[in-house]
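Hi R.,

Here's the chain you asked about this morning:
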Amino acid sequence: MTVKRRNHGRSKKGRGHVKLIRCDNCFQACPKDKAIKRFNVRNMIEAAAKRDMAEASVYESYDVPKVYYKLQHCVGCAIHNRIVRVRSRVNRRNRAPPPRFRQEFKKPTAAPAVKASA
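And the predicted structure, written out as tokens:
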């Protein structure tokens, strides 16, 4: 029989049975090893409230703690929400992680001092 994926869409390997989890979007039962899992990292406070807190705070700089959500989706919801994409038959064999696009924040630099000619 032809096989679409070498792991049959799961990461079960030697286990006979894996517990089911519920999709965070549609609540469909999905095996834990087949579910698409992603961590969602957010600040505890949104940007507008963060600005208000910075103005009212005694401290000059305060790092707002982050909240880490583990999202688990069934395959259908992950494709629908574009968490994963459908790939061609050739590209399915590519197991390398996709490139990460991180924003690099530049530190503010002081303006160069202008020399006055005397």
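The mean pLDDT is 88.

Let me know if you need anything else.
M.
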